[in-house]
Amino acid sequence: MSSTSLLDELENELLMSNDEGGKSKSNADMSDSSRGRRNLDEVDISLDEKYTPESEQSEGLKLILSHACTRFGDKMWAFVIPLILIDIFSKTLTPTALLGFFTTLVNVLFSTTIGYWIDRTDRLFVVFMGTVFQAISIAGLSVTLLFFFVALPSEHSESNVFFSFWSSLLFFFLILLSCINALAATVMNISVEKDWVPVCISNQGYLATVNSRMRQVDLVSEVVGPLLTGILLSVLGNIPGFMTVATINFISFFPQFFLLYNVYKGNKDLAYPKCEPRGDSLALNAEIEDPLNIENPSSAVASFDQLDTARVGFFWNEWNPIANLIKGWREYSQQQVMFASLAFAALWVTLLSPHDPVLTSFLRSDQYSDFWLGVFRATGAVVGILGAFAFPYVNRLYGLQLSCLAFIYIEGVFVVLAAFVFQISVMASNEVVHVMTRTLFLTFVVLSRPGLYGFEVGQIQILQNGIPEDKRGIVNSVETSLCNLAMLLVYVLSAVIYNPHWFPALTWISASFVIIACILYTRWYSTALSSRAMF
Description:
By secondary structure, this protein is mostly helical.
């Protein structure tokens, strides 16, 4: 099948979301409510209307394709890095652990600073810088790891990454570049998924479809990316295979930015300052024709001079991570979507997931083969796609808030059942009962995936609708910090409760946080119904 036919097929699938309805966008009359919080009645009406502007359909397709361009490369890269590190440092897990710890910690500390910058910076400049720094960091990481392969004696590096000054320096650069890559990825995730998408798409039904397609791309790439990486490493060998993955990842940033540039050029709303009302402007319309001033290089970055005047204090106030953490949390606590966001963050404090490394390690110690672990992980991703795929249709029937409530309770029920049957398997003395309950445990973990990914699609739309446009960066960055903090908590709990015989305690802790997430979202849902407001 040709690439043209594939694109046509994807576009035709997206055009079917016309049935999900929505109201068209008016550039001449954009009220504050259409730029931030929406009234519940207006959203319900929009779901019944059967009209999506062609411009929104085209922009939605480009946003999905730009997301797909880099997502496969990202998943391949995330899979290959631990394999390469364990190949270089075959007798120690320290490099892998340190890399994961610092890339998570840097997001906890600096996400709010990034969000603050996103809110006060031209949108195209944000994605340009995010793309550039991702590409530079990937190139730098590839060269650094290549040096580890060819320039350092393997007999020393196998067990100690800090065996010499040069190895320590290289590992420092490895950590630094990984942190830069993690922050640049956060820039792209927040700016495109949480800001560009709701600005470009006003039709609520089509917005749910685009969010759903992006999650489906994530899940498909989670299966295909590692599989393709494994094939490349097996066929080409470690070094050629690694460099091939790095090249694919690096090249993918170019079509991603090209597609986003075309969306920006075709949508005037993206160029309006986030803190000011939109309106017709001859000067702005002129800038839209060439937003990066490619045809007039002498005036390049002219549109970027609208940044916050406090740029002078680069390391003093606006770029102080501690000050931004305090400012971000204060802003986050004032948002009416806070409890919906906290519910999503609480779901990260769980290891009952097919791709969780702690659960994978436990199952490996419990004599599960690599084949069955691979089947378990792939099945979880495939079944999870069902939740992301089903959400737009459930949303059309029952509305956004109720659909999210149903999906998060689906996850909650199956996670609690998983913890319950795992406890039975631990207490079972009969081998047949033990095997049956352990199989049932894995089944319930897999069946919880549609609830998680369906809720994620809806929760993203709640935040897209409910956060004022000029606060999307800072508020979403706080949520990113919370999710990374939850990941750190899981690592700490796993380090403290390290004995495999204590694993049931981790399953109940995981189930408890999922229950907390259900309670938090239920509280937000009841508030949303009583106020009759769509946030």
